[in-house]
Design a protein that fits this description.
Layout lengths: L6 E7 L5 E6 L1 H14 L2 E5 L2 H5 L15 E2 L2 H30 L1
Antiparallel strand pairs: 1-2, 1-3, 2-4
């Protein structure tokens, strides 16, 4: 069985500290990453389909904070945890790969 292709997710807190998040299809990913950088949002690639289905679609044509929609605080915190966990797994895998290369 093949693993699903990770989907780009943009997330962060708006100027009023409201949690926002949105998922973007691959054709919009490059523009979404640029917009996220300009607005101070974070980006991550997530392959958990069930989790992704609970996130709204992002809109690269919207202006300002309308680019990604508001989400419930609990969903936002779950997103932060998922991306932190994923980053930890990648760091562990990279460390193990480096150890194997040294031997």
């Amino acid at each position: 069985m093949t693993e699903p292709i990770p989907i780009l997710v943009v997330f962060g807190l708006d100027p009023d500290s409201n949690p926002r998040a949105g998922r973007f299809a691959e054709p919009d990913a490059e523009v979404a990453v640029k917009a996220a950088a300009l607005l101070g949002y974070r980006v991550a690639r997530i392959s958990n389909i069930e989790f992704l289905e609970a996130l709204p679609d992002g809109d690269i044509f919207a202006r300002g904070i309308g680019f990604i929609r508001r989400v419930k605080r609990a969903k936002y915190e779950e997103l932060v945890a998922v991306t932190a966990e994923d980053a930890g797994e990648r760091a562990t895998a990279a460390s193990e790969e480096a150890d194997c290369d040294e031997q």
